[in-house]
Write a structure and sequence with these properties.
By secondary structure, this protein is an alpha+beta fold. 32% of the residues lie in helices and 16% in strands.
């Protein structure tokens, strides 16, 4: 009797293991279902609308307005390059204050246009030309007519002895520009010379 007991135990264990294996094999294959919440697909709530834009401003925002921003700035940089030549120094872009949504769009598109046309950008003004940008609203003569004036200026530095080297400006139509905040460009704490008119780089 003592010799048979281990054999019975082994048989019972083998039987149980076989039964468990068959049960597992007969179960459907498990696959991930993603995030579910009470048997329903979970979707995170939409983020709150940014307080940087008013409801009136959002009505005109979209791909068309973004393209108009890009093309207006790109055409200015392209005209500047064709007239004054490629800059022999890197460019440092001076940001106006306050940085409104309108100027934020101009700043981003200006940097992209400069890089695309082969300019080098500096993170500091030392050893670089200083570029500023500004804009003002226009009263459009008709629907789709230019409604904003944009200018970019280039200086040989920042300070009392700095000089403006050149300016490029133009009138453009940007959808909803009249609804955007386009204040006078101010550069608190920075000394830049008064504009004197178009010119060329001093090489």
């Amino acid at each position: 009797m003592l010799l048979k007991t281990p054999q019975i135990s082994v048989l019972l264990l083998t039987s149980c293991a076989t039964r468990l294996t068959l049960t597992a094999c007969s179960s459907p294959i498990w696959a991930p279902r993603g995030y579910v919440y009470h048997d329903e697909v979970y979707k995170s709530p939409n983020p709150p609308e940014s307080s940087k834009f008013t409801p009136a401003q959002r009505t005109t925002m979209g791909p068309e307005q973004a393209e108009q921003f890009r093309m207006s700035i790109y055409s200015l940089v392209e005209s500047l390059t064709a007239r004054a030549g490629q800059s022999p120094k890197p460019m440092y872009i001076l940001k106006p204050q306050p940085m409104t949504s309108f100027y934020a769009n101009l700043d981003n598109d200006l940097r992209e246009s400069l890089r695309h046309l082969g300019y080098t950008l500096n993170d500091y003004p030392e050893g670089a030309y200083v570029m500023t940008y500004e804009a003002s609203n226009l009263a459009p003569a008709a629907e789709g007519a230019p409604n904003v004036h944009i200018a970019i200026r280039i200086f040989d530095g920042i300070g009392e002895k700095s000089k403006m080297l050149t300016i490029e400006e133009g009138d453009f139509f940007i959808q909803g520009a009249e609804k955007l905040n386009v204040p006078f460009a101010s550069f608190p704490g920075v000394i830049i010379p008064e504009p004197t008119g178009p010119g060329k780089y001093n090489r």
